[in-house]
Design goal:
The structure holds 2 protein chains of 2 kinds.
Chain A lengths: L1 H9 L1 H16 L8 H20 L18 H23 L6 H4 L8 H28 L10 H25 L2 H15 L14 H9 L1 H13 L7 H25 L3 H4 L1
Helix pairs in contact in A: 2-6, 3-4, 4-6, 4-7, 4-8, 4-10, 6-7, 7-10, 7-11, 10-11
Chain B lengths: L3 E17 L4 H7 L3 E16 L3 E5 L6 H8 L7 E6 L3 E4 L12 H11 L4 H15 L14 H13 L5 E5 L7 H16 L3 E5 L3 H7 L2 E6 L2 E7 H12 L1 H6 L13 E9 L8 E3 L4 E9 L6 E8 L5 E6 H4 L8 E9 L7 E11 L5 E14 L51 E6 L6
Parallel strand pairs in B: 3-7, 3-8, 5-6, 6-7, 11-17
Antiparallel strand pairs in B: 1-2, 1-4, 8-9, 10-12, 12-15, 13-14, 13-16, 15-18, 16-17
Classes of the chains: A mainly alpha, B alpha/beta.
Chain lengths: 271, 440
């Protein structure tokens, strides 16, 4: 197992090349290229903004104010939560099929198999980096300067990546033996989106403590809330939730790595 | 064990052949258990491949040879036993491994290179060489999906042969592509070998194994049937596969009549300088030296030398009845040589049969059917990548088209005709001298 980890680290260049391949292939031949990966979240933000401003006339966001009382527009607030969620959700859905879709490589050449879900997750990180740049511009324009709390961003991002990679290892290995997993994950992610305070805040559902408790069991809650706090709200993240997330990440990573490690010898035969 | 490159220890590998494989949840629940048969592709392979050696793995389809190679390459994991590899390893199981149609030639070179275990700096250093080898300079920034099949194959090949691991595993790559392609691949393998790297080749091409490999392993039904020097193993394999062909040959009669009247004791190949070798360049001299023991005067014995490729096509045939006079040679031991100056054969492996017959050609004294082999290499002085069967000198000329009143329509001017340049050198000579003479 330790040797496998070392191998994955040694295959940095291959991982790098696979990530580049993923990104290039996705955007090759399109006029807007990388910008396309921004259009979806921006469109979603515009849609929800429209719905909550002109149809429902009430935003599900309470307490979206900076400590100095400066209020945060719903669209920016939502966009912040959405992009960190997308990092998780996009990476997870592409990595689930990362092994099954690489059969042509698995059968022909040896490389540490664990870099397949890894490169899928890292492709998600690159896309996230673009969205983050847009978020920073939006914050500067519509909200104001961030404070020192923004230094938490890399920590929260790393936590999200660890969490995702642990799940990705597990899911990509299981999908080899059970192809249903890809469809299953697509549905689960839909539900998971609504089970995470992205469109709403924890304060918004605060009058139902049981519900809040359930939401706090969701590993993405701490990450989304924390990310929003440090970017748009100039507030510290909820350290308890982040600590729980770290525990989740470690558990997922261990389970995912064991399952992947145990089953990878069959990949080349079954895929 | 520093001088062992690959050590296979009691390797067993099975596949499950599913009669109906359930991939979805519904099927998994409904059928409860998959119906499958266990198929053992490798049954206890013990094999050591010495560092710096070139080993061919041969065997029929389904014998397990590719499974063994994939096990060495770590693509497959054995059920039992282990494979130990000392040194960096790359496997060429396919050309253009990892090529993505949407990516440009340049991007694919780097991607494929890293899959073959090369660092970016490594690929960068050899990039120009790869591109030049492939001959697709102006298309490197074009998506490979727009490449012609030939361009794609050349680029894929160039990437493949650019690898320089300590141990190279090759599966059937040699058997794809046109002849010049294959010849270059064989050249590359030979270079790789002479550089002291370890090569393991799985192939059906017995020529390749004989010409390229010192060692060979014959696998049948997942077990090693025979291993050792490639000439011996290939001959044994050839015998078992082409047993039917051999029986049709006069050799079957050998035991019945006259056997022992004359026998072949040794066969060697000599180059133009009289040195023993098994590799020749196109257009160099080949001499087949046959040592024999006869109870008859030598003129009563017909010597026959035939050169084949694995397709059983006879390329060269020499018989003493046609062009040699051995009168006055008493019974005893002799060295008989058959020389071909400027052998026109193109690169590849060739098999040689040597036989002794009586004058009436009714009796076979001794017959070594395709028992010997030599290997032709590219001659640096000749244009590379020549196609066809043999190399023939030809001349191209251009002149104005004949005017209408010249009459004879379509006829080429006389000097445009293709003529052999050295007709006299192409003739075949046989000579004889008593056994034990110093080399010519």
């Amino acid at each position: 197992m330790r040797a496998s980890i070392r191998e994955v680290l040694a295959a940095r260049e291959l991982t790098n090349n696979l990530v580049r391949r993923d990104l290039k292939v996705r955007h090759r031949g399109t006029f807007l290229g990388m910008l396309w990966s921004l259009t979806t979240p921006l469109l979603i933000v515009a849609l929800y903004y429209f719905v909550f401003t002109y149809i429902l006339i009430q935003t599900p966001v309470k307490g979206a104010n900076r400590p100095d009382g400066h209020s945060v527009p719903f669209a920016v607030f939502f966009f912040a939560g959405l992009i960190i969620w997308n990092l998780f959700s996009n990476s997870l859905s592409t990595s689930t099929t990362s092994v099954t879709s690489s059969g042509y490589l698995l059968r022909k050449v040896y490389f540490p198999r664990a870099i397949l879900p890894l490169s899928a997750v890292l492709s998600g990180v690159v896309t996230f980096a673009f969205e983050l740049a847009v978020l920073v511009v939006a914050i500067l324009v519509f909200v104001g300067l961030p404070n020192a709390q923004i230094l938490w961003v890399p920590v929260i991002m790393a936590l999200a990546v660890l969490l995702t990679y642990g799940l990705a290892l597990f899911l990509s290995a299981v999908t080899v033996f059970l192809r249903d997993m890809a469809h299953f994950i697509a549905i689960i992610l839909q539900l998971w989106f609504w089970g995470t305070p992205i469109i709403y805040t924890l304060q918004y559902v605060g009058n139902r403590p049981g519900f809040v408790r359930i939401l706090k069991l969701n590993p993405m809650t701490g990450i989304v809330v924390g990310f929003r706090n440090v970017t748009v709200l100039n507030q510290p993240p909820d350290l308890t939730l982040l600590a729980i997330d770290l525990a989740y990440a470690v558990v997922f990573l261990v389970i995912g790595a064991v399952v992947f490690y145990r089953s990878q010898r069959l990949f080349a035969e079954i895929v | 064990m520093a001088n062992t490159a690959i050590d296979c220890h009691d390797v067993w590998k099975s596949y499950r052949i599913y009669h109906q494989r359930s991939h979805t949840l519904k099927e998994k629940i409904l059928t409860r258990r998959n119906q499958y048969e266990e198929f053992w592709a490798l049954k206890g392979i013990d094999l050591e491949i010495a560092a710096g050696s070139t080993t061919g793995i041969i065997g029929a389809n389904g014998s397990g040879k590719s499974t063994l190679l994939k096990t060495m390459a770590r693509i497959l994991t054995p059920n039992q036993g282990y494979v130990e590899v000392n040194g960096t390893l790359a496997s060429l199981l396919e050309l253009g491994i990892g090529f993505h149609p949407e990516l440009t030639g340049r991007e694919n070179v780097y991607l494929s290179g890293s899959l073959l275990g090369r660092s970016r700096r490594d690929v960068e250093a050899r990039y120009d060489e790869i591109v030049e080898f492939a001959g697709v300079e102006q298309f490197m920034d074009m998506a490979v999906k727009n490449y012609s099949t030939g361009m794609y194959a050349r680029l894929a090949f160039a990437v493949a042969v650019s690898v320089e691991p300590e141990i190279l595993l090759v599966d059937e790559v040699l058997s794809v592509g046109d002849e010049s392609f294959q010849a270059r691949c064989v050249d590359r393998m030979a270079k790789f070998r002479s550089d002291g790297h370890t090569v393991v080749i799985v192939t059906h091409g017995l020529d390749t194994v004989r010409g390229l490999c010192q060692e060979a392993v014959w696998i049948e039904g997942g077990v090693i049937r025979e291993s050792g020097s490639s000439a011996r193993v290939v001959a044994a394999y050839f015998d078992s596969v082409h047993g039917g062909v051999a029986n049709e040959h006069p050799s079957a009669e050998q035991d019945q009549a006259g056997a022992g009247a004359a026998s072949i004791t040794a066969v060697a190949f000599l180059d133009g300088e009289g040195r023993e070798t098994t590799t020749f360049e196109t257009d160099s001299t080949l001499t087949v030296r046959v040592e024999c023991q006869t109870d008859l005067p030598l003129q009563e014995v017909i010597f026959c030398v035939a050169v084949y490729r694995s397709d059983s096509f006879v390329y060269v045939m020499g018989r003493t009845s046609h062009d040699a006079d051995f009168s006055g040679r008493p019974p005893g031991r002799h060295v008989v040589e058959f020389s071909v100056p400027a052998l026109p054969l193109l690169p590849g492996g060739y098999l040689v049969s040597v036989g002794l017959q009586d004058r009436a050609q009714k009796q076979v004294y001794d017959w070594h059917d395709r028992h010997y082999g030599f290997f032709m290499m590219d001659n640096a002085r000749l244009p590379a990548g020549a196609g066809g069967i043999v190399h023939v000198e030809g001349h191209w000329t251009a002149s104005p088209a004949p005017s209408a009143e010249a009459g004879v329509g379509g006829q080429l001017p006389a000097e445009g005709a293709v003529a052999p340049e050295r007709p006299s050198e192409r003739s075949v000579v046989s000579e004889i001298r008593p056994h034990g003479d110093p080399a010519v």
